[in-house]
Specification:
Helix content: 40-55%
Oligomer: single chain
Structural class: alpha+beta
Strand content: 5-15%
Radius of gyration: 26 Å
């Protein structure tokens, strides 16, 4: 960390070139550039502007383009013009949080070696502010905020900066995700075994099954017991619940719907609808149909 913003011309140029290499954008204005590194503690002692508003701007830019990247990667418009997602909402939320949390951002700042250039006052120096994850995460966002101001909100510049700063192309690639279905036949009768074997091979977490019997969900109009099984695979951001007249049938088709939804499979004649159309299904008269929770 530094207690002065009076860097040499050579130091500033070197630091600006490093930021350009990592973000794809060169911030020409020295004052704006150094503001991104300036903490409130320095402003309190010596005056001038700090990086807090730039951090606020960068936070909003970061969230927008991360969500855009996830939406483009994990879904697309279908023939009806509807957005067809490969994950549930909580799956998108978890991925977004993983990408933009302070631990992730601080780790990137560490890789780039930028925390040493923070411009701080005496309090931050004594408290070793550069060792605090949030401080380093704020620096990441304030650099992005400075880019937003410098490029006058050029959408292409900002999207490129976010993709490069987070290495999104290396993480996800470009374009919609295309999942390759496993070699094991995706038949309803084998769905529970298929999920188990996938988990054994480390291809997904172990599925979690929750069972609800007639004591909690009652009986059909003809007096048959109702069983519901909810299958969840955490990393897929998916859950499917099937209600049927037997526990075995409900579990089988809950697992099968998970595989169909995850791999975008049509499901065959037994499936009345798209497996990605909702989490709750009813098995009745030899067919699966979406139903209300």
């Amino acid at each position: 960390m530094q207690t002065s913003n009076q860097m040499s011309t050579y130091q500033i140029r070197k630091l600006k070139r490093l930021v350009e290499e990592k973000t794809g954008y060169y911030i020409r204005d020295n004052d704006l550039f150094l503001q991104a590194f300036t903490r409130r503690s320095y402003r309190g002692q010596y005056g001038g502007e700090d990086n807090e508003v730039l951090e606020f701007i960068g936070d909003r830019v970061l969230e927008y383009y991360v969500v855009k990247a996830l939406v483009e990667r994990y879904g697309m418009l279908n023939r009806k013009g509807e957005y067809d997602a490969l994950m549930e909402e909580d799956g998108f939320s978890r991925l977004k949080v993983d990408l933009v949390n302070n631990h992730t951002l601080a780790g990137i700042i560490d890789e780039w070696g930028l925390a040493q250039y923070l411009i701080v006052g005496k309090a931050d120096l004594l408290n070793r502010a550069d060792e605090v994850e949030k401080v380093r995460g704020d620096l990441f966002e304030s650099i992005l905020g400075a880019i937003a101001i410098a490029c006058k909100w050029d959408a292409q510049v900002l999207e490129t900066a976010v993709r490069r700063m987070l290495s999104l192309d290396e993480r996800f690639g470009r374009g919609p995700a295309r999942r390759k279905a496993p070699d094991i036949p995706l038949e309803p009768e084998k769905a529970v075994v298929t999920l188990k074997e996938m988990a054994d091979r480390g291809e997904c977490p172990r599925p979690v099954y929750e069972t609800f019997g007639p004591d909690s969900i009652g009986y059909s109009p003809t007096g048959m017991p109702r069983w519901a099984v909810r299958c969840t695979v955490a990393d897929w951001g998916l859950a499917r619940q099937v209600t049927a007249s037997s526990k075995q049938m409900a579990k089988r088709y809950a697992a099968w719907l998970m595989l169909c939804a995850h791999y975008g499979l049509p499901g065959g004649a037994e499936l009345a609808g798209d497996a990605r159309s909702g989490p709750n299904w009813l098995w009745q008269d030899g067919r699966l149909s979406p139903c209300a929770p």
